[in-house]
């Protein structure tokens, strides 16, 4: 079964702060961009932590016990360690991580842990918003009949909780991966179970006569 990845739904243009970003600048960034949190990175773009509106409120509530001579920065405000994900992780896995850790956003990092994007709860939930019936109709009409030119009854399509199951027979072997990839790219599809068979193998290399 193939699932959407974090890299496909994440936002690449990330609003971020560095260690020394002042309190007021963090507030301005959150307000200006209408976001509820942002990652804090070091000079190599590696994620150190995340600052949220909750962190700002907590800081203000505890300001009575703080040294008034010291300026508050993003490093003082951020929650650590940052809960991060990689772009190749599946959307369902990222959603479960977000729910388990009680966070609203996940910084997306590359193999060297450098920030490359942000995945918010809204980003992850976008793929779950469509109904199963709506997805099933689009799979049949747009992908199988409209895209591959198959008869409407050639493939049985069922969708449950965003997972589409394809059962039936297509004409050519090359149509199997084409159908699977076209279906799992549809908005709302979180996985594809492939039960397709084929009549003719157009992918095998013909033998060369000697």
Automatic annotation (TrEMBL):
Keywords: CBS domain. Residues 10-68, 78-135 form the CBS domain. PROSITE patterns: BON, CBS. Residues 132-200 form the BON domain. CDD domains: CBS_pair_BON_assoc. It comes from Streptomyces violaceochromogenes. The keyword NAD does not apply. This is CBS domain-containing protein. The lineage of its organism: Bacteria, Bacillati, Actinomycetota, Actinomycetes, Kitasatosporales.
């Amino acid at each position: 079964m193939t699932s959407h990845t974090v890299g496909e739904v994440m936002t690449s243009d990330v609003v971020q702060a560095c260690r020394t970003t002042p309190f007021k600048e963090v507030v301005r960034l959150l307000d200006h961009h209408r976001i509820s949190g942002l990652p804090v990175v070091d000079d190599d773009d590696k994620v150190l932590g995340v600052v949220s509106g909750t962190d700002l409120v907590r800081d203000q509530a505890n300001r009575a016990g703080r040294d008034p001579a010291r300026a508050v920065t993003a490093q003082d405000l951020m929650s650590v360690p940052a809960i991060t994900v990689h772009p190749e992780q599946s959307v369902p896995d990222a959603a479960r991580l977000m729910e388990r850790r009680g966070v609203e956003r996940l910084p997306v990092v590359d193999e060297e842990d450098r920030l490359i994007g942000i995945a918010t709860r809204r980003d992850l939930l976008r793929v779950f918003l469509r109904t199963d019936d709506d997805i099933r109709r689009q799979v049949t009409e747009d992908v199988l009949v409209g895209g591959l030119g198959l008869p409407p009854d050639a493939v049985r399509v069922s969708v449950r909780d965003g997972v589409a199951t394809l059962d039936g027979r297509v004409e050519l072997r090359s149509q199997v991966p084409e159908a699977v990839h076209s279906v799992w790219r549809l908005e709302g599809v979180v996985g594809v179970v492939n039960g397709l068979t084929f009549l003719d193998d157009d992918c095998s290399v013909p033998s060369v006569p000697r």
